[in-house]
Design goal:
It holds the Pfam family Bac_transf. With 452 residues, this protein is an alpha/beta fold. It contains 14 helices and 10 strands. It has 3 domains: 122 residues, no CATH class; 91 residues, Response regulator (Rossmann fold); 192 residues, no CATH class. The N and C termini lie far apart (66 Å).
Length: 452
């Protein structure tokens, strides 16, 4: 008898997804390539490649709580890798005379159909849960605090995810709480998943709950004591048979993700330099020179990847002054020129940083780099500030589109910026980069309150 993992859509749907995706993949392959290749060998080859890539990219690891942006990111990553593999295959087999444009047409068609199927299945399952009450998980929570209250609200307010919450046990209720009462309730109500607030339980209680869950085939999950602002995305690894936990999992430490992001940075920055900066730079240069004497570009040392210093470039927006490397621009700053106000408001002053991106010092999207003097100051007083240097700094970032751009007026501003930067580092995807770039463009068009 086959045992299926709980918490998935169902044990069969993963196999059905594989079958349908491979049918789309091979059907389109025969349509595009059947005149050029041995059909049987080609089907075996691309099916094997697809399955291997899907295991690597975790393409079928979609859960009931997965967000649409994560699903879209998985689709783009899987099809991107598959496209590169197909292009490499055609390059190594020149006798087949498969043109790159044909491969691109094939992979785009595959992307559209598989993406359509994946999202259709995702929304049909949500509709099935809300309308018919199927494909659900029954939950109970042990421990009561802000986080468990938020989780309980999530279960109640999002029926499309298929959770039916039965009860939250308050560990502070000295008269009514005991683990035996919890265990009896969980067994009687056929609870599927148990959620525990770590901060509300002693070590001995945690061990008892683990033993109960293991012996009764219950899914057990823990809510960390997250009193600070930073997420803890732990990575579980084995050194031989020794389990080791890493504090955080950084997607951009993966060589494939590094290649994808670097390739995107090169292509995007090249397009901006060729089609925008090539004609805009002379215009901005003339306007800057007309208003004030001094260089067109402003160069400033910033801390980047691994805390390494680099020269960050901008269009000069201030009168030349000795304090430019020490103090940020403030509201009503007298150092800012008239043309400077305009290019700062529209973020045009940041455009020369696309050269930094092309040279490899920066990325299009990432944590914004600070002046060296400010970095040293914040590193001493703001917890987790240095985590931002695990990846390349960016021209724009998640913090900037979330209300934390510009001047740091209070510690709350820099704490908020660090919070969003760490979330970005731990949850990077190419689709998230696209979202940040799009939102940055909209903010530049509308103008931002703190863009001064």
């Amino acid at each position: 008898m086959t045992t299926f993992k709980q918490g998935r859509y169902s044990g069969y749907l993963k196999h059905i997804s594989y079958l349908i995706d491979l049918s789309i993949l091979n059907g389109l392959a025969l349509l595009y390539f059947f005149k050029s290749v041995d059909s049987i060998k080609f089907i075996v080859l691309i099916s094997s490649a697809w399955i291997i890539l899907s295991i690597y990219s975790k393409f079928y690891e979609v859960y009931r709580y997965s967000r649409e942006i994560n699903i879209a990111s998985l689709i783009l990553k899987q099809l991107g890798l598959f496209t590169l593999l197909m292009l490499a295959f055609s390059g190594l087999n020149l006798s087949l005379e498969i043109q790159p444009i044909v491969i691109l047409k094939y992979t785009i068609s595959t992307l559209f159909l598989i993406g359509l199927f994946k999202f259709t299945l995702y929304y049909l399952l949500q509709k099935y849960r809300t309308t018919f009450g199927g494909n659900y998980r029954i939950t109970a929570i042990i421990g009561k605090n802000k986080q468990t209250n938020a989780l309980e609200s999530f279960f109640h307010n999002n029926p499309e995810y298929g959770y039916i919450h039965k009860k939250t046990f308050n560990t502070k209720d000295k008269d009514g709480f005991s683990l035996d009462v919890c265990f009896n309730f969980i067994a009687k109500e056929s609870i599927d998943e148990i959620y525990c607030a770590i901060s509300e339980l002693s070590n001995s209680q945690v061990y008892k709950i683990i033993d109960f869950a293991d012996n009764n085939l219950k899914i057990l999950k823990f809510l960390p004591d997250n009193k600070d602002i930073h997420s803890k995305k732990l990575k579980y690894e084995y050194y031989d048979y020794i389990p080791v936990l890493s504090l955080r999992n950084i997607p951009l430490e993966d060589s494939v993700n590094q290649f994808i992001k670097r390739l995107f940075d090169i292509l995007f920055s090249s397009l901006v330099i060729i089609f925008l900066l090539s004609w805009l730079t002379p215009i901005i240069a003339v306007l800057i020179k007309i208003e004030s004497k001094g260089p067109v570009f402003f160069k400033q040392s910033r801390n980047g990847f691994n805390y390494k210093e680099f020269d960050c470039y901008k269009f000069r927006s201030m009168m030349p002054n000795k304090d430019a490397h020490l103090y940020q621009a403030t509201r009503g700053d007298q150092r800012i020129t008239r043309i400077g106000k305009f290019i700062r408001k529209t973020s045009i002053d940041e455009l020369p940083q696309f050269f930094n991106v092309l040279f490899g010092d920066m990325s299009v999207v990432g944590p914004r780099p600070h002046m060296v003097s400010h970095t040293n100051m914040y590193a001493k007083k703001i917890d987790k500030f240095m985590v931002r240097h695990f990846v390349k700094p960016g021209i724009t970032g998640l913090a900037q589109i979330s209300g934390f751009r510009g001047e740091v007026e209070t510690d709350k501003d820099i704490i908020g910026r660090v919070k969003y930067d760490i979330f970005y580092i731990e949850n990077w995807s190419l689709l998230l980069d696209f979202k940040i770039i799009f939102k940055t463009f909209l903010n530049a068009v509308k103008g931002e309150e703190k863009a001064y």
